[in-house]
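USER: Write out one fold?

ASSISTANT:
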Amino acid sequence: MKLQFQLIAILFLLAGELQAQNAGPERRFEAGIVAGMNLSQVDGDDLTGFNKIGVNVGGRVDAILTQRWRLSLEMLYAQQGASRHKLDNPASVFDKIRLNLVEAPVMVHFQDWKIQASAGVSYARVINAEIIDFTGEDATGSYPLKDNLYSIILGGTFFFQENLGINIQWSRWINNLLISDGNEPSPLPSQQSGRFIGRTVTIRGIYMF
């Protein structure tokens, strides 16, 4: 937990310095904070629905390219994974998959009026992970997981005020969370492909200073 708070603190310090240097009408950088929740699932665990709720919080720095185009870097603490619902497949051996991440999305934004459309990629480092099986036992050791995740992100923001908005994003992992010795993952119990590919819907507020 200590690492992600240090990284977020560094981002805020950098953002504050950029704000101080670009306080005039021709400023080229803006800083902000984001806070909200992730609704996530993992394809390959035989559980359906975006039932895993986690936090999504951190800081953001924007480079203003033109009046309508921006490039941003975020540093986030995020929680993703999967969680069983009562209507899920009873044959699944999984009950919960919990992932705590430090995530760094790089996004391109296009803004017209109060609406901002965004697309980008993200790198995430898995700080810790936990897999709980259907009996409630910790099965993390039975499923070797990678430390690094890469995602694509699409989203949009509606700004109620000039600096305050609500952001909705969809993201999907590009790589498989499970470690495999070969080019194709070996099937695991209750799985056809032996792949864990996460998908997440993020809902959060954004405040730009």
